[in-house]
Amino acid sequence: MYGVILVLCAVAAVLLLVHLVRDAPAEDGIYLVLGSAEVALLVQLVWGSVALADTSREVSGTLFVSYLVGVLLALPIGAFWSLAERNRAGTAVLLLAVLTVAALEVRLDAIWSGAGA
Amino acid sequence: MPEHDGRLDLSSGWGRALVFTYGVFAVAATGRSLVQLGTDADRAPLAYSLSLFAAVVYLVATTCLLIGGVTGWRVAGIAVCVELLGVLSVGALSYVATDLFPDKTVWSHFGQGYAFLPLVLPFAGLAWLRHTRVS
């Protein structure tokens, strides 16, 4: 799941970067990729919660679940915030949102492996 | 100078991207400091208090950029300057006085854990405020 999300983030980031350089607003195709990433994040929330309940390893549960939920918020807020300005600035906001998700995913993986706050 | 309904607008154009970044850091710093202070506050009181302080500074900056106006511009300016001083002093202290920082904060090691963005962000903020200043 982790890999799928990172790949979707990478695809979205490259598309958004191209649009940013070309000074273009994000188009429907990009929102499709972002939507898929959001669905993947939802699946991750369920999957992650189940895995957390099953594991016998030492994982900081509250922290892990708050990251699982928190990472869901970045794309919708970013999309909402970018729609007010459908130009280069909006594209930049979407790119930042995608990078935020990628960064949170890396942290999430670290927390799963046992890192603390 | 971007204006909106005759009011100084700090959250459109590049400001829109800046507000989003500040918002992310406001949430990240608040979350981190709450977790740190909530789980074991005694381990590194100074570092954790600084985390909370950083969170407040990011929240103030985000809010002021969102609100805009001349007052918003001024308060945002103060917040960004405090942020710059904070990241520089905490960044330097965390290298020199390692015993004061047994655990990390947003600003320790110049924001290394956050891809050094905390070090870049105040400069971006100052540049944006300079760009939008009313003579």
Strand and helix layout:
The complex is a heterodimer of chains A (117) and B (135).
Chain A: H1 2-21, H2 28-54, H3 61-83, H4 88-112
Helix pairs in contact in A: 1-2, 1-4, 2-3, 3-4
Chain B: E1 3-4, E2 7-8, H1 14-40, H2 45-67, H3 69-96, H4 117-131
Antiparallel strand pairs in B: 1-2
Helix pairs in contact in B: 1-2, 1-4, 2-3, 3-4
Describe what you observe in this structure.
The complex is a heterodimer of chains A (117) and B (135). With 117 residues, chain A is mainly alpha-helical. Chain A has one domain. In chain A, helix 3 (61-83) packs antiparallel against helix 4 (88-112). Chain A is built from four helices and no strands. Chain A has helices spanning 2-21, 28-54, 61-83, 88-112. The model of chain A has no long low-confidence stretch (mean pLDDT 89). In chain B, a hairpin with a 2-residue loop joins strand 1 (3-4) and strand 2. Chain B starts with a strand and ends with a helix. Chain B is mostly helical and 135 residues long. Chain A binds chain B through residues 62-63, 66, 70, 74, 77-78, 81-82, 84-85, 89-90, 92-93, 96-97, 100, 103, 117, and chain B through 12-17, 19-21, 23-24, 27, 31-32, 35-36, 39, 103, 114-115.
